[in-house]
Each structure stands twice: as C-alpha cells, then as structure tokens.
Amino acid sequence: MAYYDLKKKPPLTTKEGEEDVLYPEIVYIGTITAKELLEYTSKCSGFKVGAMDGMLMSIFDGMVHWLNQGFRVELGEFGYFSGKIKANRLVKKKTDIRSGSIHFGDVNFRPSAKLKKALDGELTRTPDHTFRHSSNHSMDELEQWLMAYLDKNSFIKRTTYTEQTGRLKWKATQDLKFFMEKGLIVSKGRGNQKYYVRAEKEQ
C-alpha cells in the first residue's frame, strides 16, 4: 500500500480567475537500498545476492559505455536511458563555442509502458504525521498491527513504524526493542539501514 496527500496547485500554474484546486502527490515513506532490493529479490527468486550484484555492475558498465557513444539504452522492461549534455556557457553562434566546453551532465530515463502499467498498487490518503506526543495505543494493539503489517510486507523500518503508529522516535525504538525481546522480530543492518523482519524468517 502506498500513501498520497492532496496539495494546492502552485500559484504560478493557476490562471487568473481560476479557483484553487488540489492535486494528488505520493508521500514517500523511505528509500529501498540496492542491497535491500537484491536481498528481497533473492528470497523471491532463489538467485544469489552476490551473483545479482555482479550482474548489476556489469550492466552498469555496459550502459555507461553505450551512453558515452551517443546511444539510447533499453534496459529490459524498465525503460530507456539516454545521456543529457550541457555547455559551460550559452552562445549566439555555433562558432563561438568548442567541443571541449560541452560535456555530459545528466541522464534521462523514460519508463516503459509495461513498467507504468505495473504500478497498480492500492493507494490511500496519508494520515496527519505531525505528532507532538506518542499515540496511546496499547502494546497488544501495536503488536497486532505490526504482525499484520509484516504479513503483507517482508520488513519494516523504524521510520515506517513511527509514521504508521504515531509513536515518537524514542518510543518507537523502545517498542521495537520490546518486540525483539519478546521473540517476535529480529533486526537486520545497522544505522540508517536497520530494518526488522519476523523472527521465524530466520529459521
């Protein structure tokens, strides 16, 4: 499940006399790292993480090679990559600038029709996350919510737990430690990369 919020249309894009309107915008709840993606894919497919990581590096090197040659590169069902160039300065005549002043500056990505069509997950309006105090849910209620969440998702991060339960950072950390000591979940990773999975998945 993904979340969205409704925001006012920017004034610069609103025509004179036009009423204020709202548009939907996705609310990101975190970033899945390459390592997390590979570990998840490994569990679903059986491919080794190391093998997939090596393949990604090889694909990256190949893509860079062809982009530098001026080609667009198609990457399976993901879409198309293309190089973007820029000049150190703007000129009025073609003869006023040399090739040494023009270089690659960015990469464009155009998703495939299949990728766009595949994004058909459930969306729900995000709750108000401006918590000043931790929510007063009981530990039993929090445990039920956490287990239900992990039934649908392979892992959870502390930030997601905070956003979904209304528990402040320090309280959320205590909650997750309590559930670990109870044997319900185990932690993976360190620092900002730490996440939690069901304990039985370690068997």
From TrEMBL:
HU domain mapped to chain residues: 2-121
Domain of life: Bacteria
InterPro entries, sorted: HU-HIG, IHF-like_DNA-bd_dom_sf
Record bears the keyword S-adenosyl-L-methionine: no
Keywords for the protein's UniProt record, in alphabetical order: DNA-binding
Gene Ontology MF: a single term: DNA binding
Pfam annotation, one family: HU-HIG
UniProt keyword ATP-binding, yes or no: no
Protein name, per record: HU domain-containing protein
Organism: Bacteroides helcogenes (strain ATCC 35417 / DSM 20613 / JCM 6297 / CCUG 15421 / P 36-108)
Organism taxonomic ancestry: Bacteria, Pseudomonadati, Bacteroidota, Bacteroidia, Bacteroidales
